[in-house]
Every structure is written in structure tokens, then in C-alpha cells.
Amino acid sequence: MDRPLAEFVDMLRYSDVPVSIGEALDAARTMELLGFEDRGLLKSALSQVMAKTIDEMENFDRCFDQFFTSETSLNFKDNSENEQKPDETDVEVELDPVDEKGAPPPAMSGNGEGGGGGGGEQQSGEQQMPGESAPRSLTDLLEQGDRTELTLAMTAAADRSNLGNIILMTQRGLFTRRILEEMGLNEVNQEISDRKAEDDEAGAEDLGNRLSILFDAVRDMVERQLALTSDGKNNQFRQDILKKVRLSNIETRDFRVLREMVRRMAKRLTDMNSRVKKVKNRGHLDIRKTMRRNVAYDGILFETHWKQKEKDRPKVMAVCDVSGSVASVARFLLLFLHSMNEVLPNVRSFAFSGELGEITDLLNRHGPEEAIPQVIEEYGGRSTDYGRSMEDFKELAFNEIDSRTTIIFLGDGRSNGADPRTDILKEIKSRAKRVIWLNPERKSVWGSGDSEMLKIAPYCTKAEVCNSLTKLELVIRDLLKTS
């Protein structure tokens, strides 16, 4: 795949247009077939390959227009006979490959491949072919005002400087300097100093002015690239951080972003587990199905069919402490579970701080995002009593627990000195398939103060710390994998 196309695919992915590897390869074939002569046709064809929804189409159009077209202004004003007219000083550069195979433009057409102060010298490892002219230095390009070759040199230097990796506003000066040094900034500065030493103030001033124009053009290129990539990369960076931050430390303004992240995680896990899993028992031939499928062959067994065992969907009961800081974790656990109705259709949810109550109907009727604040308001804000909550849970759901049931308790195990009724938890474990206890507190504080976790943990199949989206996703993934 060509590098410009790979960078365009990265830009689309950062802009919420998920392009798969297969779609990227299809896009490469499309570009090879259509070429770049008809930009509108290319845009339409690539959008059909890469964008799947209306929102993705809008993002694709914006990314395409930003990525493949850019303007660079190099306004050199000469008093020579060949001075350009005012309307010819702006050069529009189409940032697309020009050869028929869709390869990127050559870094420079024999015109200053030198960088890092090399001025017109060839980089190590490159050899001048017989009959080719020597590369032109940046000083020559500036003095002659060759805007086309300067623009090509800028593009090549930006590529060598990895400008596509820019993310932060504070990196603009760094990348501007790198690009200028790749083009031959040190050699130009030395030439200006030499002219001043030779009392050629006019020549030094003219070259300095031209270097300033080039500096402005390079800075504009850097800022355009920053505009292309910063939003998507910053959003991705922010989401990566939010995945690992303790949910109890999440600010209210980040809830909307986290809800969207949970929905995407749930969708990904749903897609991975939406098909009915079947385990083939190769040793058991299904005689009836085999005979029925081979009737068309006069009973000759061309096709054999083996007995299959379907996996049952797990029954899940989520019991959530919604008091204090635990409420923020409960919010996203419930959102996660109820966003996966396709693969977890039998989820029953309970909430408590003191008294426990079932909230399944409320979540189903209003949806998690609207119902969860009501749940926290109704059941939260009370003195936590795990013993009473266990008694209420046993009364409401104990008879429904069987060998297919996974019970997830979410709480810090702090019962304010009350008996946590681990005897009830022991009974629950004996009936259920699994009992998972998720605690947002680190293990080093389990058992400290009024924490009853050291008494609770022995009666759980698994008791572990869960205080971030990443850990929450791992818990749900494990639940689906082992169901």
C-alpha cells in the first residue's frame, strides 16, 4: 500500500471512520484502476469502499478534502524581467501522487535532496546517475525563486521529518525547525553570515527575506498537518487515558465520552460473540440428518453431518452497591451489561446501599443512560448494609439461581460494622455457576477499617479489583468467553 494512502487511512480511523485492512486494500486497487485525473470520481469511489454510514460519509468527505488538497504560498517578489504577475504568486499544490501507479511524487527532481545543513550535498547512500545534474542547494532555489521545486523540497523534508506524527500545538516549532534543517537551513544561514562578513548587506538581507518567506510557508504546512491529525489523535489519546483512569476520579464532563466508549466496547464484544457457538463432537454421527441430506443422491452418503452441541447464553445477575464512589463504577457496569442484550439477554440487575431492590424493569423500560441516575437517587445515599442487602437478594432471587447463573457483585465490602451475612453468600455460591466480586478498592486496603472483603472473598469464585473501563471490559470478555 502506498504511504499517502496509508496515512489517509490512519486519518479516517482517527476520525471515526473504521477502515478494515480489507477495505484499505480495496481502496488501493481502486486508486490503481482510476488514477487521479478525475478527483470527483476518485472521491466517490473511495467513499463507497471505506464509508458505511451517513456519519462516516460526512467524515470521509471532510477528511478527503483536507488530505488531498493543500495550498502553499511562496511569494518571492523579484525586480527581474521574469517577475511574476500578482495573480501568479500563489501556488496550489495537489498533495496526491502523480504517476499512473499511484506512487507518491519523488522527494525532489534532482533538486536539493540534501538536508540537515547539507545544502546541495547528496545524502549518504545515494549516488548520482550518469547524465544527471547535481542537486541544487537550498540557497540556489531561494535566490531563483523556484516555487515548484521548493514546494517539492518541503514535501520531501516533511516526509523525512515524520510530520504526520505531529499531535500537539507545542510541537509546531519543533517540526518547522526539523523540516527547514532537512531542506538545508544551516547552509543558508552560513551563506548569510558569509555575505555579511564580505559587506554584502544587500545580498544577505535579500536571502534572509527569502528564507523568512520559506519559514512562513513551512510553518503553514506544519499547522495544516496539525489540523489534519491533531483532533483525531488527541481524541484517541484522551480515550486511552480515560480507559485506565479510576472511574471514581472521572469528571462529570467526561461521562458522555465514557458512555460512547462503553457502547463501542459492548458492540465489539457483541460482534465477537453474537453467533451461536457450537462445539462439534466428531465422534457422534447424526444419522437422521445425514440420511435426509443424502436423499438426492439415492442414499449414497456424499455428505456427513455430526451432532452439535449449542452453548447456552449465560444467565447474569448484577448486584451493585450504588453508594458513594462505588456508584460511578456501578453506572458503567450496568451500562455495559445492558448494552449487550444480543449476547446477554437474561441480565437481571439489583441495586442497594441499605435496602436492595430489583431495577431490571426500570433499565429495560427507560434504557441505562436515563434509568441509572434514577437508580442512584432511589437506592443510593444511605448507610451501606451488606447483611440486609444479602437478605433482600435471597428473598427476591435465590430460587432463580441455577447452574447456568453467573452472579456479579460490585461493592467495596464496607458494611459499616454490620454482619455481611457471608452464610447467605456461601449458599448462593453453592447454587450458582460462578460468583464474581468486583471491588473498586485496591487489594492492599481490603480488610482495613470496616472492610469485610477478607471474609467475603473465600465465598466467591473470583474476587478482584475493578476500577477502570479496561478492567471492566476484561471482566465482561472473560464472562462471555467462559460461558
Order of helices and strands: HHHHEEHHHHHHEHEEHEEHHHEHEHEH
- The total beta strand count reads 10
Helix content: 40-55%
Mean pLDDT: 76
Strand arrangement, largest sheet? 7-6-5-8-9-10
Straight-line distance between termini: 40 Å
Gross geometry: elongated
Task: Describe the 3D structure.
By secondary structure, the chain is an alpha/beta fold. The protein folds into 3 domains: 3-241, no CATH class; 278-310, no CATH class; 315-481, von Willebrand factor, type A domain (Rossmann fold). It is built from 18 helices and 10 strands. Strands 7-6-5-8-9-10 form a 6-stranded mixed β-sheet, with helices on both faces. It has a two-stranded antiparallel sheet with strand order 1-2. A two-stranded antiparallel sheet has the order 3-4. α12 (326-338) packs across α18 (469-481). It is elongated, with a radius of gyration of 33 Å. The two termini are 40 Å apart. Residues 79-126 and 276-280 have low confidence and may be disordered.
Short description:
The protein is α/β, with parallel strands linked by helices.
What labels would you give this structure?
alpha/beta; Rossmann fold; two-stranded antiparallel ribbon; elongated; 6-stranded mixed β-sheet; 483 residues
